[in-house]
Write a structure and sequence with these properties.
Blueprint lengths: L4 H17 L2 H10 L7 H9 L18 H13 L6 H15 L4 H10 L5 E4 L15 E5 L2 E12 L6 E8 L2 E8 L5 E7 L5 E13 L3 E2 L6 H36 L1 E2 L2 E2 L4 H30 L4 H27 L10 H12 L5 H11 L3
Helix pairs in contact: 1-4, 4-7, 4-8, 5-6, 5-7, 7-8, 7-9, 7-10, 8-9, 9-10, 9-11
Length: about 375
């Protein structure tokens, strides 16, 4: 479903670039160095120079504006090569900040920096087990003269140490408000932990944190539509990344089935395992169709975007988890050892499932969107 030569070339270039600079060996090197950012900052800068950080930024504001299909193809390559990067979060930030930046001023400058791989935002949105449930936001933003006061806490905030500031979603009397908050303001506290795949996730608390009114993105109570669009694009990006990781896991499993012998023959000759592998292959094909359809829908029929995004995330995540589970079963105990690359992808898949809403959240969201 690659629609033109430009996108085909983008996908080929992304895989070629990451094949030389990412992958399990590079992942282990970053993990062993244990950088505070949780990813290779130098590699992210190289990605940004290729235009990936600005892929969702309008051309008029210093970006490349290549569309959701381009986002999906880059994200799929990231997953296939186990590359750690703040790509989905940058796509979200680009979407919400672009709306404010169209009026010029400081937001236009911040967006230009984002497109150049600088000025990273950490997304402080999640509060409960059902990630990104916008109806359940409890953090409050209270207007106080020329400032805004924030109170509440956020969980599952990625890349706090690498970010320049936090994008905090809060509720006001008249809707949702997005606020750009410096990490070092009085009343901001951060507790960070390392995920299974080395990325950092934090719980961030706001104890009556006071920020200037100019830090509000798009006006008090006006963030809902931009945030919803940004989240759906990020969800499809994560779905594509999971799809890339799942395909890599499947390919490694097939290779292992060809090499590993029992009773003097490759285990891949066992009919029961062939049937299980065929099922994974079929499911991966369906999941990729769902992801590509979601990207096309976001570009061509935005009103149907939310449902398509949830289908993509729910399907890609459930299939990726299934492919990972089958990989572990077919590898046996060695599949979870550090010696075998497949285990690294399995951990990445498990963490990505919870990024921008788990597969159970999106199955429920799709049902609600369709009136069930």
């Amino acid at each position: 479903m690659i629609v033109n030569e430009e996108l085909k070339q983008l996908a080929e270039n992304a895989h070629g670039f990451l094949k030389d600079r990412a992958g399990p060996k590079a992942f282990r090197a970053v993990r062993d160095q244990d950088p505070a950012e949780g990813f290779d900052v130098g590699l992210w800068q190289q990605m940004s120079e290729l235009g990936w950080a600005g892929i969702a930024v309008p051309e008029s504001l210093g970006g490349y504006e290549m569309g959701p299909l381009a986002v999906v193809l880059v994200a799929e390559a990231l997953g296939a090569h186990l590359a750690s990067a703040p790509f989905a979060g940058t796509v979200f930030a680009a979407t919400v900040v672009s709306d404010a930046a169209k009026e010029g001023g400081a937001w236009a400058e911040r967006l230009t920096a984002l497109a150049e791989g600088r000025g990273l935002f950490a997304l402080a949105i999640d509060e409960r087990a059902h990630h990104h449930d916008l109806a359940g936001i409890q953090t409050t933003a209270t207007s106080a003269g020329g400032s805004v006061r924030l109170a509440g806490s956020k969980r599952n905030v990625l890349d706090v140490d690498a970010a320049d500031s936090l994008l905090v979603l809060a509720k006001t009397d008249d809707g949702l408000t997005l606020v750009d908050v410096a990490k070092n303001l009085p009343g901001v506290s951060v507790k960070t932990a390392v995920q299974l795949d080395v990325r950092r996730t934090s719980t961030v608390s706001f104890d009556n944190v006071e920020v200037e009114r100019s830090s509000v993105i798009g006006g008090l109570g006006q963030a809902g539509p931009s945030v919803a669009r940004g989240l759906d694009l990020a969800r499809v990006a994560v779905a594509a990344e999971m799809l890339g990781a799942a395909k890599a896991v499947f390919d490694m499993t097939l290779d292992y089935m060809r090499d590993r012998k029992q009773f003097g023959v490759p285990i891949g000759s066992f009919q029961a395992l062939q049937h299980r592998a065929a099922h994974v292959h079929t499911e991966l094909t369906i999941a990729r169709a769902a992801v590509m359809k979601a990207a096309s829908t976001l570009a061509e029929s935005p009103d149907n975007g939310p449902a398509a995004a949830s289908v993509a995330k729910a399907k890609a995540a459930s299939v990726a988890i299934h492919a990972a589970n089958e990989a572990i079963q077919m590898h046996g105990g060695v599949g979870v050892t550090d010696e075998f690359d497949v285990g690294l992808f399995v951990k990445r898949i498990r963490t990505l499932d919870h990024a921008f809403g788990s597969h159970t959240f999106h199955a429920d969201r799709y049902a609600r969107l369709r009136g069930f």
